[in-house]
Amino acid sequence: MSTGAAEEITLTKAGSATDGGPDTGPAGAAGPAAASPPARDSRTVRRLGPRRRLGLGRPVPYGWALGPLLLLALWAAGSATGLIDARNLSAPWTVVTTAGDLIADGRLQSNLATSAQRAALGLLFGVLAGLFLALVSGLSRIAEGVIDGPVQIKRAIPSLALIPLLILWFGIGESMKVITIALGVFVPVYIHTHNGLRTIDNRYVELAETVGLSRTAFLRHVVLPGALPGFLLGMRFAVTGAWLALVVVEQVNATSGIGYMMELARTYGQTDIIIVGLVVYGLLGLLSDALVRLVERRTLSWRRTLAG
Amino acid sequence: MATHAGGLTADHPAATVRIRSLVRSFGDRNVLDGLDLDLGAGEFVALLGRSGSGKSTLLRALAGLDHDVTGTGELGAPDPVAVVFQDARLLPWKRVLDNVVLGLDGPDPVARGRAALAEVGLAGREKTWPVELSGGEQQRVSLARSLVREPGLLLADEPFGALDALTRIRMHVLLRRLCARHRPAVLLVTHDVDEAIVLADRVVVLAKGRIGADIPVDLPAPRAHGSAAYATLRERLLEELGVDPTAQEESAV
Protein backbone atom coordinates (compact mmCIF):
# COMPACT_ATOMS: atom_id res chain seq x y z
CA MET A 1 0.00 0.00 0.00
CA SER A 2 2.63 2.50 1.13
CA THR A 3 4.91 1.76 -1.82
CA GLY A 4 2.03 2.33 -4.20
CA ALA A 5 1.37 5.75 -2.71
CA ALA A 6 5.05 6.65 -2.90
CA GLU A 7 5.18 5.69 -6.55
CA GLU A 8 2.17 7.78 -7.36
CA ILE A 9 3.69 10.78 -5.62
CA THR A 10 6.96 10.36 -7.41
CA LEU A 11 5.23 10.20 -10.74
CA THR A 12 3.22 13.33 -10.04
CA LYS A 13 6.38 15.13 -9.02
CA ALA A 14 8.27 13.95 -12.08
CA GLY A 15 5.40 14.93 -14.36
CA SER A 16 5.35 18.49 -13.08
CA ALA A 17 9.14 18.77 -13.05
CA THR A 18 9.52 17.81 -16.70
CA ASP A 19 7.53 20.90 -17.60
CA GLY A 20 9.97 23.05 -15.69
CA GLY A 21 13.29 21.92 -17.10
CA PRO A 22 14.57 19.33 -19.52
CA ASP A 23 17.63 18.52 -17.38
CA THR A 24 15.58 16.68 -14.72
CA GLY A 25 16.45 12.99 -14.50
CA PRO A 26 14.01 10.11 -15.01
CA ALA A 27 11.22 9.55 -12.47
CA GLY A 28 13.15 6.94 -10.50
CA ALA A 29 16.13 9.25 -10.02
CA ALA A 30 14.14 11.60 -7.79
CA GLY A 31 14.31 8.83 -5.18
CA PRO A 32 12.41 8.39 -1.94
CA ALA A 33 14.22 11.39 -0.37
CA ALA A 34 12.26 13.80 -2.60
CA ALA A 35 9.02 11.93 -2.01
CA SER A 36 8.06 13.47 1.31
CA PRO A 37 7.65 17.22 0.56
CA PRO A 38 5.90 16.84 -2.83
CA ALA A 39 3.30 14.60 -1.18
CA ARG A 40 1.57 17.66 0.21
CA ASP A 41 1.83 19.41 -3.17
CA SER A 42 0.13 16.68 -5.07
CA ARG A 43 -2.61 16.43 -2.48
CA THR A 44 -3.25 20.21 -2.67
CA VAL A 45 -3.37 20.04 -6.44
CA ARG A 46 -5.90 17.26 -6.28
CA ARG A 47 -8.13 19.21 -3.88
CA LEU A 48 -8.11 22.21 -6.24
CA GLY A 49 -9.18 20.02 -9.15
CA PRO A 50 -12.69 20.01 -10.58
CA ARG A 51 -15.60 19.01 -8.39
CA ARG A 52 -17.52 15.81 -8.89
CA ARG A 53 -19.68 16.37 -11.94
CA LEU A 54 -23.40 16.04 -11.27
CA GLY A 55 -24.66 17.32 -14.61
CA LEU A 56 -24.47 15.40 -17.88
CA GLY A 57 -21.04 15.07 -19.46
CA ARG A 58 -20.12 15.70 -23.05
CA PRO A 59 -22.31 13.97 -25.65
CA VAL A 60 -21.21 10.48 -26.68
CA PRO A 61 -20.35 10.33 -30.40
CA TYR A 62 -23.14 8.48 -32.26
CA GLY A 63 -24.85 7.99 -28.89
CA TRP A 64 -28.26 8.14 -30.57
CA ALA A 65 -27.43 4.89 -32.40
CA LEU A 66 -26.94 2.89 -29.18
CA GLY A 67 -30.58 1.99 -28.58
CA PRO A 68 -31.47 1.03 -32.16
CA LEU A 69 -28.28 -1.05 -32.50
CA LEU A 70 -29.04 -2.85 -29.25
CA LEU A 71 -32.56 -3.64 -30.45
CA LEU A 72 -31.17 -4.90 -33.75
CA ALA A 73 -28.66 -7.09 -31.91
CA LEU A 74 -31.38 -8.58 -29.69
CA TRP A 75 -33.56 -9.22 -32.72
CA ALA A 76 -30.71 -10.89 -34.61
CA ALA A 77 -29.72 -12.98 -31.58
CA GLY A 78 -33.33 -14.04 -31.01
CA SER A 79 -33.78 -15.07 -34.64
CA ALA A 80 -30.45 -16.93 -34.82
CA THR A 81 -31.11 -18.95 -31.68
CA GLY A 82 -34.68 -19.67 -32.67
CA LEU A 83 -36.16 -17.86 -29.68
CA ILE A 84 -38.12 -15.68 -32.12
CA ASP A 85 -40.46 -17.67 -34.36
CA ALA A 86 -40.01 -16.63 -37.99
CA ARG A 87 -43.81 -16.72 -38.41
CA ASN A 88 -44.13 -13.94 -35.84
CA LEU A 89 -41.09 -11.94 -36.79
CA SER A 90 -38.73 -12.67 -39.67
CA ALA A 91 -35.01 -12.54 -39.08
CA PRO A 92 -33.21 -9.29 -39.95
CA TRP A 93 -31.32 -10.94 -42.85
CA THR A 94 -34.59 -12.27 -44.28
CA VAL A 95 -35.98 -8.75 -44.17
CA VAL A 96 -32.90 -7.44 -45.97
CA THR A 97 -33.13 -10.05 -48.75
CA THR A 98 -36.89 -9.48 -49.05
CA ALA A 99 -36.26 -5.75 -49.40
CA GLY A 100 -33.69 -6.57 -52.11
CA ASP A 101 -36.24 -8.74 -53.93
CA LEU A 102 -38.96 -6.09 -53.65
CA ILE A 103 -36.62 -3.49 -55.09
CA ALA A 104 -35.44 -5.85 -57.82
CA ASP A 105 -38.96 -6.52 -59.13
CA GLY A 106 -39.90 -2.83 -58.71
CA ARG A 107 -42.78 -3.35 -56.28
CA LEU A 108 -41.25 -1.30 -53.49
CA GLN A 109 -40.49 1.66 -55.76
CA SER A 110 -43.91 1.79 -57.40
CA ASN A 111 -45.74 1.48 -54.06
CA LEU A 112 -43.44 4.04 -52.48
CA ALA A 113 -44.05 6.45 -55.37
CA THR A 114 -47.82 6.14 -54.92
CA SER A 115 -47.57 6.65 -51.17
CA ALA A 116 -45.20 9.60 -51.50
CA GLN A 117 -47.51 11.27 -54.00
CA ARG A 118 -50.50 10.93 -51.65
CA ALA A 119 -48.53 12.24 -48.69
CA ALA A 120 -47.09 15.13 -50.67
CA LEU A 121 -50.47 16.21 -52.04
CA GLY A 122 -52.15 15.93 -48.64
CA LEU A 123 -49.28 17.83 -47.05
CA LEU A 124 -49.42 20.55 -49.69
CA PHE A 125 -53.15 21.20 -49.37
CA GLY A 126 -53.11 20.83 -45.59
CA VAL A 127 -50.20 23.23 -45.10
CA LEU A 128 -51.67 25.82 -47.46
CA ALA A 129 -55.04 25.67 -45.71
CA GLY A 130 -53.52 25.78 -42.23
CA LEU A 131 -51.21 28.66 -43.09
CA PHE A 132 -53.92 30.70 -44.76
CA LEU A 133 -56.44 30.19 -41.95
CA ALA A 134 -53.81 30.96 -39.30
CA LEU A 135 -52.81 34.21 -41.00
CA VAL A 136 -56.39 35.37 -41.47
CA SER A 137 -57.47 34.51 -37.95
CA GLY A 138 -54.23 35.81 -36.47
CA LEU A 139 -54.62 39.24 -38.03
CA SER A 140 -58.31 39.91 -37.51
CA ARG A 141 -60.41 39.56 -34.39
CA ILE A 142 -63.57 38.81 -36.39
CA ALA A 143 -61.89 36.19 -38.55
CA GLU A 144 -60.51 34.62 -35.39
CA GLY A 145 -64.04 34.37 -34.01
CA VAL A 146 -65.20 32.68 -37.19
CA ILE A 147 -62.25 30.35 -37.79
CA ASP A 148 -60.75 29.46 -34.45
CA GLY A 149 -63.77 27.69 -32.93
CA PRO A 150 -64.35 25.23 -35.78
CA VAL A 151 -60.63 24.44 -35.96
CA GLN A 152 -60.55 23.69 -32.24
CA ILE A 153 -63.57 21.42 -32.69
CA LYS A 154 -61.84 19.70 -35.62
CA ARG A 155 -58.79 19.28 -33.42
CA ALA A 156 -60.84 17.29 -30.92
CA ILE A 157 -62.02 14.88 -33.64
CA PRO A 158 -59.31 12.54 -34.97
CA SER A 159 -59.12 12.78 -38.77
CA LEU A 160 -59.28 9.03 -38.89
CA ALA A 161 -62.71 9.08 -37.26
CA LEU A 162 -63.90 11.10 -40.23
CA ILE A 163 -62.95 8.39 -42.74
CA PRO A 164 -66.43 6.78 -42.90
CA LEU A 165 -67.98 10.15 -43.69
CA LEU A 166 -65.25 11.03 -46.18
CA ILE A 167 -65.76 7.72 -47.96
CA LEU A 168 -69.48 8.51 -48.30
CA TRP A 169 -68.72 11.97 -49.67
CA PHE A 170 -65.69 11.37 -51.85
CA GLY A 171 -65.74 7.63 -52.55
CA ILE A 172 -62.74 5.41 -51.98
CA GLY A 173 -60.52 7.02 -54.61
CA GLU A 174 -57.44 9.16 -54.34
CA SER A 175 -59.27 12.37 -53.40
CA MET A 176 -60.60 10.79 -50.19
CA LYS A 177 -57.08 9.76 -49.21
CA VAL A 178 -55.55 13.13 -49.97
CA ILE A 179 -58.33 14.95 -48.10
CA THR A 180 -57.95 12.73 -45.05
CA ILE A 181 -54.22 13.45 -44.94
CA ALA A 182 -54.79 17.18 -45.52
CA LEU A 183 -57.31 17.29 -42.66
CA GLY A 184 -54.75 15.75 -40.34
CA VAL A 185 -52.02 18.11 -41.51
CA PHE A 186 -53.75 21.47 -41.40
CA VAL A 187 -54.52 21.39 -37.68
CA PRO A 188 -50.93 21.45 -36.32
CA VAL A 189 -49.91 23.98 -38.97
CA TYR A 190 -52.83 26.21 -38.00
CA ILE A 191 -52.34 25.86 -34.24
CA HIS A 192 -48.62 26.57 -34.21
CA THR A 193 -48.64 29.31 -36.83
CA HIS A 194 -51.53 31.04 -35.09
CA ASN A 195 -49.76 30.73 -31.77
CA GLY A 196 -46.54 32.06 -33.31
CA LEU A 197 -48.44 35.03 -34.70
CA ARG A 198 -50.17 35.87 -31.47
CA THR A 199 -47.00 35.61 -29.41
CA ILE A 200 -45.15 38.15 -31.55
CA ASP A 201 -43.96 40.70 -29.02
CA ASN A 202 -46.26 43.71 -28.90
CA ARG A 203 -43.15 45.88 -28.69
CA TYR A 204 -42.40 45.00 -32.30
CA VAL A 205 -45.91 46.00 -33.29
CA GLU A 206 -45.35 49.38 -31.63
CA LEU A 207 -42.06 49.72 -33.42
CA ALA A 208 -43.75 49.00 -36.73
CA GLU A 209 -46.24 51.77 -35.94
CA THR A 210 -43.57 54.32 -35.03
CA VAL A 211 -41.59 53.74 -38.22
CA GLY A 212 -44.84 54.02 -40.17
CA LEU A 213 -44.96 50.58 -41.80
CA SER A 214 -47.87 49.93 -44.16
CA ARG A 215 -50.12 46.92 -43.57
CA THR A 216 -48.28 44.92 -46.26
CA ALA A 217 -44.84 45.91 -45.01
CA PHE A 218 -45.90 45.02 -41.46
CA LEU A 219 -46.99 41.59 -42.68
CA ARG A 220 -43.76 41.06 -44.58
CA HIS A 221 -41.22 42.42 -42.10
CA VAL A 222 -42.80 41.63 -38.75
CA VAL A 223 -45.68 39.15 -38.91
CA LEU A 224 -44.33 36.49 -41.27
CA PRO A 225 -40.79 36.32 -39.87
CA GLY A 226 -42.20 36.47 -36.36
CA ALA A 227 -44.56 33.56 -37.01
CA LEU A 228 -41.97 31.50 -38.91
CA PRO A 229 -40.63 29.57 -35.88
CA GLY A 230 -44.18 28.56 -34.97
CA PHE A 231 -44.98 27.60 -38.55
CA LEU A 232 -41.89 25.41 -38.81
CA LEU A 233 -42.73 23.68 -35.54
CA GLY A 234 -46.19 23.04 -36.96
CA MET A 235 -44.53 21.66 -40.10
CA ARG A 236 -42.61 19.10 -38.07
CA PHE A 237 -45.85 17.80 -36.61
CA ALA A 238 -47.47 18.02 -40.03
CA VAL A 239 -44.96 15.87 -41.93
CA THR A 240 -45.09 13.17 -39.28
CA GLY A 241 -48.88 13.43 -39.25
CA ALA A 242 -49.02 13.05 -43.02
CA TRP A 243 -47.20 9.71 -42.89
CA LEU A 244 -49.38 8.54 -40.00
CA ALA A 245 -52.60 9.33 -41.84
CA LEU A 246 -51.16 7.65 -44.91
CA VAL A 247 -50.73 4.36 -43.06
CA VAL A 248 -54.37 4.32 -42.11
CA VAL A 249 -55.92 5.37 -45.43
CA GLU A 250 -53.77 2.83 -47.26
CA GLN A 251 -54.76 -0.01 -44.99
CA VAL A 252 -58.46 0.80 -45.06
CA ASN A 253 -58.97 0.47 -48.79
CA ALA A 254 -56.27 0.81 -51.38
CA THR A 255 -54.88 -1.12 -54.28
CA SER A 256 -51.41 0.38 -54.18
CA GLY A 257 -49.01 2.02 -51.78
CA ILE A 258 -46.79 0.87 -48.93
CA GLY A 259 -49.77 0.36 -46.61
CA TYR A 260 -51.50 -1.81 -49.22
CA MET A 261 -48.32 -3.82 -49.69
CA MET A 262 -48.22 -4.49 -45.95
CA GLU A 263 -51.91 -5.29 -45.76
CA LEU A 264 -51.52 -7.80 -48.58
CA ALA A 265 -48.52 -9.35 -46.81
CA ARG A 266 -50.63 -9.77 -43.68
CA THR A 267 -53.15 -11.94 -45.52
CA TYR A 268 -50.31 -14.22 -46.67
CA GLY A 269 -48.47 -14.14 -43.33
CA GLN A 270 -45.33 -12.57 -44.82
CA THR A 271 -43.90 -10.83 -41.80
CA ASP A 272 -40.72 -9.95 -43.71
CA ILE A 273 -42.66 -7.71 -46.12
CA ILE A 274 -44.53 -6.12 -43.21
CA ILE A 275 -41.21 -5.30 -41.54
CA VAL A 276 -39.88 -3.81 -44.79
CA GLY A 277 -42.97 -1.57 -44.90
CA LEU A 278 -42.49 -0.52 -41.28
CA VAL A 279 -38.84 0.31 -41.88
CA VAL A 280 -39.76 2.35 -44.95
CA TYR A 281 -42.39 4.30 -42.98
CA GLY A 282 -39.90 4.93 -40.18
CA LEU A 283 -37.21 6.11 -42.57
CA LEU A 284 -39.67 8.40 -44.37
CA GLY A 285 -40.73 9.96 -41.07
CA LEU A 286 -37.14 10.45 -39.94
CA LEU A 287 -36.04 11.86 -43.29
CA SER A 288 -38.88 14.33 -43.60
CA ASP A 289 -38.41 15.53 -40.03
CA ALA A 290 -34.69 15.98 -40.67
CA LEU A 291 -35.56 17.95 -43.80
CA VAL A 292 -37.81 20.35 -41.89
CA ARG A 293 -35.15 20.78 -39.23
CA LEU A 294 -32.62 21.58 -41.93
CA VAL A 295 -34.94 24.27 -43.28
CA GLU A 296 -35.41 25.49 -39.70
CA ARG A 297 -31.66 25.86 -39.21
CA ARG A 298 -31.26 27.70 -42.51
CA THR A 299 -34.14 30.13 -42.14
CA LEU A 300 -33.79 30.78 -38.42
CA SER A 301 -30.07 31.45 -38.52
CA TRP A 302 -30.67 34.68 -36.58
CA ARG A 303 -31.59 32.47 -33.64
CA ARG A 304 -28.74 30.03 -34.01
CA THR A 305 -26.35 32.54 -32.51
CA LEU A 306 -28.54 32.61 -29.41
CA ALA A 307 -28.50 28.83 -29.07
CA GLY A 308 -24.71 29.03 -29.26
CA MET B 1 -60.31 60.53 -27.97
CA ALA B 2 -56.59 60.87 -28.38
CA THR B 3 -55.79 63.45 -31.03
CA HIS B 4 -52.57 63.51 -32.96
CA ALA B 5 -52.42 66.43 -35.38
CA GLY B 6 -49.40 67.56 -37.34
CA GLY B 7 -48.23 71.03 -38.34
CA LEU B 8 -46.94 74.11 -36.62
CA THR B 9 -48.96 76.41 -34.44
CA ALA B 10 -49.88 80.00 -35.20
CA ASP B 11 -49.50 81.75 -31.86
CA HIS B 12 -46.04 80.36 -31.05
CA PRO B 13 -44.12 80.38 -34.31
CA ALA B 14 -40.91 78.95 -32.88
CA ALA B 15 -42.67 75.97 -31.32
CA THR B 16 -42.55 72.73 -33.24
CA VAL B 17 -44.37 70.78 -30.56
CA ARG B 18 -47.47 72.31 -29.00
CA ILE B 19 -49.47 70.56 -26.30
CA ARG B 20 -52.54 72.21 -24.77
CA SER B 21 -54.85 70.93 -22.02
CA LEU B 22 -53.79 67.34 -22.56
CA VAL B 23 -55.75 64.83 -20.51
CA ARG B 24 -55.08 61.11 -20.45
CA SER B 25 -56.95 58.83 -18.10
CA PHE B 26 -56.66 55.27 -16.93
CA GLY B 27 -59.92 54.35 -15.23
CA ASP B 28 -60.92 57.20 -12.95
CA ARG B 29 -57.43 58.56 -12.63
CA ASN B 30 -56.24 61.44 -14.82
CA VAL B 31 -52.58 60.63 -15.30
CA LEU B 32 -52.17 63.73 -17.44
CA ASP B 33 -54.50 66.47 -16.25
CA GLY B 34 -54.57 69.54 -18.46
CA LEU B 35 -50.91 69.51 -19.42
CA ASP B 36 -49.42 72.35 -21.52
CA LEU B 37 -45.97 72.13 -23.08
CA ASP B 38 -44.15 73.71 -26.03
CA LEU B 39 -40.92 72.55 -27.61
CA GLY B 40 -38.95 74.83 -29.92
CA ALA B 41 -37.40 73.50 -33.11
CA GLY B 42 -34.10 71.85 -32.28
CA GLU B 43 -34.66 72.25 -28.56
CA PHE B 44 -33.48 69.46 -26.24
CA VAL B 45 -35.90 69.05 -23.35
CA ALA B 46 -35.52 66.51 -20.56
CA LEU B 47 -38.68 65.34 -18.86
CA LEU B 48 -38.25 64.35 -15.23
CA GLY B 49 -40.85 62.94 -12.92
CA ARG B 50 -41.36 60.39 -10.22
CA SER B 51 -42.31 56.91 -11.31
CA GLY B 52 -45.98 56.79 -12.15
CA SER B 53 -46.11 60.53 -12.81
CA GLY B 54 -47.15 60.02 -16.43
CA LYS B 55 -43.83 60.59 -18.25
CA SER B 56 -44.29 57.60 -20.48
CA THR B 57 -47.98 58.39 -21.00
CA LEU B 58 -47.05 61.81 -22.37
CA LEU B 59 -44.36 60.33 -24.57
CA ARG B 60 -46.67 57.65 -25.93
CA ALA B 61 -49.32 60.29 -26.65
CA LEU B 62 -46.78 62.27 -28.68
CA ALA B 63 -45.66 59.10 -30.46
CA GLY B 64 -49.27 58.26 -31.34
CA LEU B 65 -49.02 54.93 -29.54
CA ASP B 66 -51.87 55.42 -27.05
CA HIS B 67 -54.56 53.52 -28.95
CA ASP B 68 -56.88 52.45 -26.17
CA VAL B 69 -56.30 55.40 -23.85
CA THR B 70 -59.12 57.89 -23.28
CA GLY B 71 -58.25 61.57 -23.29
CA THR B 72 -58.76 65.04 -24.67
CA GLY B 73 -56.55 67.95 -25.58
CA GLU B 74 -54.63 69.48 -28.41
CA LEU B 75 -51.48 67.84 -29.64
CA GLY B 76 -49.30 69.31 -32.40
CA ALA B 77 -46.13 67.52 -33.44
CA PRO B 78 -43.92 67.66 -36.52
CA ASP B 79 -43.65 64.84 -39.01
CA PRO B 80 -41.88 62.47 -38.79
CA VAL B 81 -41.63 61.67 -35.11
CA ALA B 82 -38.97 59.11 -34.22
CA VAL B 83 -38.91 57.07 -31.03
CA VAL B 84 -35.97 55.55 -29.17
CA PHE B 85 -37.24 53.02 -26.65
CA GLN B 86 -35.55 51.88 -23.48
CA ASP B 87 -34.88 48.53 -25.08
CA ALA B 88 -33.23 48.96 -28.47
CA ARG B 89 -36.19 47.12 -29.97
CA LEU B 90 -34.40 45.72 -33.00
CA LEU B 91 -36.19 43.02 -34.97
CA PRO B 92 -34.07 39.94 -34.12
CA TRP B 93 -34.72 38.36 -37.54
CA LYS B 94 -33.30 41.32 -39.46
CA ARG B 95 -29.68 42.21 -39.83
CA VAL B 96 -28.47 45.53 -38.46
CA LEU B 97 -28.74 47.50 -41.70
CA ASP B 98 -32.22 46.09 -42.45
CA ASN B 99 -33.30 47.21 -39.00
CA VAL B 100 -32.03 50.74 -39.64
CA VAL B 101 -33.85 51.11 -42.97
CA LEU B 102 -37.07 49.43 -41.78
CA GLY B 103 -39.98 51.38 -43.29
CA LEU B 104 -37.63 54.07 -44.64
CA ASP B 105 -38.95 55.92 -47.70
CA GLY B 106 -37.16 58.20 -50.11
CA PRO B 107 -34.24 57.77 -52.46
CA ASP B 108 -31.56 55.15 -51.82
CA PRO B 109 -32.51 54.05 -48.30
CA VAL B 110 -29.62 51.59 -48.14
CA ALA B 111 -26.96 54.26 -48.67
CA ARG B 112 -28.61 56.50 -46.09
CA GLY B 113 -28.81 53.58 -43.68
CA ARG B 114 -25.11 52.87 -44.11
CA ALA B 115 -24.30 56.52 -43.51
CA ALA B 116 -26.42 56.54 -40.35
CA LEU B 117 -24.65 53.43 -39.06
CA ALA B 118 -21.28 55.03 -39.75
CA GLU B 119 -22.44 58.10 -37.84
CA VAL B 120 -23.10 56.04 -34.70
CA GLY B 121 -19.74 54.31 -35.10
CA LEU B 122 -21.00 50.99 -36.43
CA ALA B 123 -19.66 51.07 -39.98
CA GLY B 124 -18.84 47.55 -41.15
CA ARG B 125 -21.43 45.92 -38.87
CA GLU B 126 -24.27 46.14 -41.41
CA LYS B 127 -24.62 42.37 -41.82
CA THR B 128 -24.50 41.55 -38.11
CA TRP B 129 -27.50 40.01 -36.32
CA PRO B 130 -28.84 42.08 -33.40
CA VAL B 131 -28.17 39.28 -30.88
CA GLU B 132 -24.48 39.52 -31.70
CA LEU B 133 -24.30 43.15 -30.52
CA SER B 134 -23.75 44.44 -26.99
CA GLY B 135 -26.47 46.46 -25.28
CA GLY B 136 -24.76 49.75 -26.07
CA GLU B 137 -24.26 48.80 -29.72
CA GLN B 138 -27.92 47.81 -30.03
CA GLN B 139 -28.97 51.20 -28.69
CA ARG B 140 -26.63 52.85 -31.22
CA VAL B 141 -28.41 50.98 -34.01
CA SER B 142 -31.70 52.17 -32.57
CA LEU B 143 -30.40 55.77 -32.64
CA ALA B 144 -29.31 55.32 -36.24
CA ARG B 145 -32.75 53.96 -37.13
CA SER B 146 -34.35 57.07 -35.62
CA LEU B 147 -32.01 59.69 -37.05
CA VAL B 148 -31.90 58.30 -40.58
CA ARG B 149 -35.51 59.50 -40.86
CA GLU B 150 -34.41 63.09 -40.12
CA PRO B 151 -37.19 63.49 -37.55
CA GLY B 152 -38.60 66.86 -36.51
CA LEU B 153 -39.11 65.39 -33.06
CA LEU B 154 -37.08 62.68 -31.38
CA LEU B 155 -38.78 60.99 -28.44
CA ALA B 156 -36.56 58.98 -26.12
CA ASP B 157 -37.99 56.91 -23.29
CA GLU B 158 -35.17 56.32 -20.79
CA PRO B 159 -32.97 55.20 -23.68
CA PHE B 160 -29.88 54.59 -21.56
CA GLY B 161 -31.59 53.17 -18.50
CA ALA B 162 -30.53 49.60 -19.22
CA LEU B 163 -26.88 50.43 -19.97
CA ASP B 164 -23.91 50.34 -17.62
CA ALA B 165 -22.51 53.64 -16.32
CA LEU B 166 -19.51 53.83 -18.66
CA THR B 167 -21.50 53.00 -21.76
CA ARG B 168 -24.09 55.57 -20.70
CA ILE B 169 -21.49 58.36 -20.60
CA ARG B 170 -20.33 57.41 -24.10
CA MET B 171 -23.91 57.40 -25.32
CA HIS B 172 -24.49 60.86 -23.82
CA VAL B 173 -21.59 62.26 -25.81
CA LEU B 174 -22.84 60.51 -28.96
CA LEU B 175 -26.39 61.76 -28.51
CA ARG B 176 -25.25 65.37 -27.97
CA ARG B 177 -23.14 65.20 -31.13
CA LEU B 178 -25.91 63.66 -33.24
CA CYS B 179 -28.50 66.15 -32.03
CA ALA B 180 -26.16 69.05 -32.74
CA ARG B 181 -25.85 67.80 -36.31
CA HIS B 182 -29.45 66.81 -37.07
CA ARG B 183 -31.16 69.42 -34.88
CA PRO B 184 -34.39 67.57 -34.07
CA ALA B 185 -36.49 68.73 -31.15
CA VAL B 186 -35.84 66.15 -28.44
CA LEU B 187 -38.02 65.06 -25.56
CA LEU B 188 -35.96 62.80 -23.34
CA VAL B 189 -37.81 60.98 -20.59
CA THR B 190 -35.45 60.08 -17.79
CA HIS B 191 -35.40 59.46 -14.06
CA ASP B 192 -31.74 60.40 -13.88
CA VAL B 193 -31.30 64.03 -12.76
CA ASP B 194 -27.65 64.11 -13.85
CA GLU B 195 -28.48 62.79 -17.30
CA ALA B 196 -31.09 65.54 -17.64
CA ILE B 197 -28.64 68.29 -16.64
CA VAL B 198 -25.80 67.01 -18.81
CA LEU B 199 -27.89 66.65 -21.96
CA ALA B 200 -30.77 69.11 -21.98
CA ASP B 201 -31.29 72.78 -22.85
CA ARG B 202 -34.32 72.78 -20.57
CA VAL B 203 -35.59 70.44 -17.87
CA VAL B 204 -39.31 70.10 -17.16
CA VAL B 205 -40.66 68.23 -14.16
CA LEU B 206 -43.96 66.43 -14.38
CA ALA B 207 -46.09 66.53 -11.23
CA LYS B 208 -49.79 65.95 -10.65
CA GLY B 209 -50.43 65.49 -14.34
CA ARG B 210 -48.95 68.86 -15.36
CA ILE B 211 -45.61 70.52 -15.90
CA GLY B 212 -44.69 71.42 -12.32
CA ALA B 213 -41.38 73.13 -13.04
CA ASP B 214 -39.76 74.39 -16.23
CA ILE B 215 -36.10 75.16 -15.74
CA PRO B 216 -33.61 76.24 -18.42
CA VAL B 217 -30.12 74.78 -18.13
CA ASP B 218 -27.65 77.65 -18.61
CA LEU B 219 -24.49 75.77 -17.86
CA PRO B 220 -21.44 76.11 -20.08
CA ALA B 221 -20.22 72.95 -21.79
CA PRO B 222 -18.74 70.65 -20.69
CA ARG B 223 -21.13 70.35 -17.81
CA ALA B 224 -18.94 69.09 -15.02
CA HIS B 225 -20.43 67.55 -11.93
CA GLY B 226 -18.12 69.57 -9.68
CA SER B 227 -19.27 73.10 -10.51
CA ALA B 228 -21.35 75.10 -8.04
CA ALA B 229 -24.00 76.02 -10.64
CA TYR B 230 -24.40 72.32 -11.45
CA ALA B 231 -24.85 71.41 -7.80
CA THR B 232 -27.44 74.15 -7.27
CA LEU B 233 -29.45 73.05 -10.28
CA ARG B 234 -29.25 69.42 -9.23
CA GLU B 235 -30.48 70.28 -5.75
CA ARG B 236 -33.34 72.32 -7.15
CA LEU B 237 -34.45 69.50 -9.45
CA LEU B 238 -34.29 66.92 -6.69
CA GLU B 239 -36.40 69.23 -4.56
CA GLU B 240 -38.97 69.49 -7.36
CA LEU B 241 -39.04 65.70 -7.47
CA GLY B 242 -39.72 65.62 -3.75
CA VAL B 243 -36.34 64.23 -2.77
CA ASP B 244 -34.39 65.82 0.09
CA PRO B 245 -30.85 66.03 -1.38
CA THR B 246 -29.11 66.05 1.99
CA ALA B 247 -30.97 62.96 3.11
CA GLN B 248 -29.98 61.26 -0.10
CA GLU B 249 -26.33 62.03 0.42
CA GLU B 250 -26.46 60.55 3.87
CA SER B 251 -28.01 57.36 2.62
CA ALA B 252 -25.43 57.19 -0.17
CA VAL B 253 -22.65 57.06 2.43
UniProtKB/TrEMBL annotation, chain A:
<feature type="transmembrane region" description="Helical">
    <location>
        <begin position="178"/>
        <end position="197"/>
    </location>
</feature>
<protein>
    <submittedName>
        <fullName>ABC transporter permease</fullName>
    </submittedName>
</protein>
<feature type="region of interest" description="Disordered">
    <location>
        <begin position="1"/>
        <end position="50"/>
    </location>
</feature>
<dbReference type="Pfam" id="PF00528">
    <property type="entry name" value="BPD_transp_1"/>
</dbReference>
<keyword id="KW-0813">Transport</keyword>
<keyword id="KW-1003">Cell membrane</keyword>
<feature type="transmembrane region" description="Helical">
    <location>
        <begin position="119"/>
        <end position="143"/>
    </location>
</feature>
<feature type="domain" description="ABC transmembrane type-1">
    <location>
        <begin position="108"/>
        <end position="292"/>
    </location>
</feature>
<dbReference type="InterPro" id="IPR035906">
    <property type="entry name" value="MetI-like_sf"/>
</dbReference>
<keyword id="KW-0472">Membrane</keyword>
<feature type="transmembrane region" description="Helical">
    <location>
        <begin position="155"/>
        <end position="172"/>
    </location>
</feature>
<feature type="transmembrane region" description="Helical">
    <location>
        <begin position="273"/>
        <end position="295"/>
    </location>
</feature>
<feature type="transmembrane region" description="Helical">
    <location>
        <begin position="218"/>
        <end position="239"/>
    </location>
</feature>
<feature type="transmembrane region" description="Helical">
    <location>
        <begin position="62"/>
        <end position="84"/>
    </location>
</feature>
<comment type="similarity">
    <text>Belongs to the binding-protein-dependent transport system permease family.</text>
</comment>
<dbReference type="InterPro" id="IPR000515">
    <property type="entry name" value="MetI-like"/>
</dbReference>
<feature type="compositionally biased region" description="Low complexity">
    <location>
        <begin position="17"/>
        <end position="39"/>
    </location>
</feature>
<keyword id="KW-0812">Transmembrane</keyword>
<keyword id="KW-1133">Transmembrane helix</keyword>
UniProtKB/TrEMBL annotation, chain B:
<dbReference type="InterPro" id="IPR027417">
    <property type="entry name" value="P-loop_NTPase"/>
</dbReference>
<dbReference type="InterPro" id="IPR003593">
    <property type="entry name" value="AAA+_ATPase"/>
</dbReference>
<feature type="domain" description="ABC transporter">
    <location>
        <begin position="17"/>
        <end position="233"/>
    </location>
</feature>
<dbReference type="InterPro" id="IPR003439">
    <property type="entry name" value="ABC_transporter-like_ATP-bd"/>
</dbReference>
<dbReference type="InterPro" id="IPR017871">
    <property type="entry name" value="ABC_transporter-like_CS"/>
</dbReference>
<dbReference type="InterPro" id="IPR050166">
    <property type="entry name" value="ABC_transporter_ATP-bind"/>
</dbReference>
<keyword id="KW-1003">Cell membrane</keyword>
<dbReference type="GO" id="GO:0005524">
    <property type="term" value="F:ATP binding"/>
</dbReference>
<keyword id="KW-1278">Translocase</keyword>
<keyword id="KW-0472">Membrane</keyword>
<keyword id="KW-0813">Transport</keyword>
<protein>
    <submittedName>
        <fullName>Aliphatic sulfonates import ATP-binding protein SsuB 1</fullName>
    </submittedName>
</protein>
<keyword id="KW-0067">ATP-binding</keyword>
<keyword id="KW-0547">Nucleotide-binding</keyword>
<dbReference type="Pfam" id="PF00005">
    <property type="entry name" value="ABC_tran"/>
</dbReference>
